[in-house]
Model the fold of this input.
Amino acid sequence: MPRPFAPNNDHCAVPAGWRECIANTWPGILPTIDGMFSARFGRPVIVTRHAAQRMAERQVSDDLLLRLIDEGGQRWRDAHRLWVWLDVPGRSDNLVCAVLVLEDAVIVKTVMHRWELMP
Done:
C-alpha cells in the first residue's frame, strides 16, 4: 500500500497532471488553490478539504497561507512533516500555524490559530 499523500507512479506522475491525479487518487484531498507554488520548498501547494474549511473558519486568506508556508518559522517532526507558523500583525489570535507534509507537492493538512510553540 502506498504511503498517504505520496502518489503511486502506477496511478500518475507529479507535477504533470497533479491536480487530477490527487483528486482521483485521494478523494479527501482537494487542490483548492489554482497556481499556488511555494518558493521555499520549490513545489506546488495542495490544500486538503479539511485545511480549506479551517482557513475559512479562521479567516486565513490564500495570500496569508502562502506567506505562512514561505516565510514562517519551521519545526520539523521528521523528514517529511512539519509545522510552520507566523505572528501576523493586527491579529488577536496569533500564532497562525499550518501543518504540512512534503512530498511531490506541499500538502497543507490543517491550519490553526492561537498556536503555541512548545520547547
